[in-house]
């Protein structure tokens, strides 16, 4: 099933307890200015966007301890950057801003732009040149926002809290009880005077309240959640999508629209915020590890028949461009782990993980606060649990789950090993 573990990049910063913990924020508008294909719903095919409901942003927090910096970027688009984008971003922010670790994720809104198209024949060039140009410019926007946040770091305090909220549902599981991760986690960063700098919200639910027929760009319900929090606290709010592969929203008669649902989640965030006490870390530190795995795909995704089916399900240029991320039916998922101040464990994965992956990692992490960050540093489709794959259904079948069975469990085991290695216990 698994071919081999390709390589491990380990960048671990062991830091002295006397150093300061710092944080800085920045954001940039990444709303497309021209009509282009939209990401997420195959039924749209190559229909071009028709305006904007609300703007799309990339927002960044840079954490700093001693000589080590880590950037956490969230974007109001469907997925994390492509591998070539990530390579360009990592190189630039390391050289220009001294940022060693980056975690860049999409909220998974299905009302953002396609970012996979390439400046090459039959992959977007010419016919969808505006979309190609947008994708070429996106890494520069991300680089700029990371550099700005890194330049603005200041001594800071940090704290977090969580609550379980009944606002998502399992859309795949047939057996009962259905698995869910209902934890809403909130991380707040304050200046030393107590003024909030950043609020980072982690929950798991597809931003798919708007219908596919609506061709306007939108940050969807997470955008309204962030607006609610920012208006109340005056601090930058970021949405960190969790293990939402099998998690849809669960709305009521009072939360049927993106603004009502987002505002309702925002009010829950504000409740959790009231329980948070921030503090200057006792032992400021940032430690991290990056892993890349190599698997043979579960089916022959790059075969002519599969490419034709993918092209029909979406559109040919997107299928052709997406095949560039697969070489000879190999798929290379990413895992990025950050241990912040020895207490906050940020785990980024490059796909749509089912919720029991995050549930089990949290259970096994023994008291360390885990933020599970899906759609991060790439996008390698669905990662169902083994038992979910046995039941089948969308997200669990080979048509959209390209990794071999058990890949998600293996990557989660590595995330757990990384935690204990970063703690110095292994």
Which stretches of 5+ consecutive residues score pLDDT under 50?
A: 1-17
Largest sheet: 8 strands, mixed
Strand arrangement, largest sheet?
5-4-3-2-6-8-9-10
End-to-end CA span: 27 Å
Topology, number of strands: 18
User: What is the percent of helical residues?
Assistant: 25-40%
Task: Spell the H/E element sequence.
Answer: EEEEHEHEEEEHEEHEHHEEEEHEEHH
What Rg do the Cα atoms give?
Answer: 20 Å
Overall geometry comes to globular
Secondary structure category: alpha+beta
Give the integer mean of the pLDDT values: 94
Q: Treating each run of at least 4 consecutive H or I residues as one helix, how many helices?
A: 9
Number of domains: 1
Strand content: 25-35%
Could you explain how this protein is built, in words?
- The protein is α+β, with helices and mostly antiparallel strands and 426 residues long.
- It is built from nine helices and 18 strands.
How is the topology of this model organized?
Blueprint: E1 2-11, E2 21-29, E3 57-65, E4 68-75, H1 83-97, E5 101-106, H2 129-151, E6 154-164, E7 168-170, E8 183-191, E9 196-203, H3 220-233, E10 236-241, E11 247-249, H4 258-273, E12 286-296, H5 304-313, H6 316-322, E13 330-331, E14 334-340, E15 344-349, E16 352-353, H7 355-364, E17 369-373, E18 382-383, H8 386-391, H9 407-422
Parallel strand pairs: 4-5, 9-10, 15-17, 16-18
Antiparallel strand pairs: 1-12, 2-3, 2-6, 3-4, 6-8, 7-11, 8-9, 12-13, 12-14, 14-15
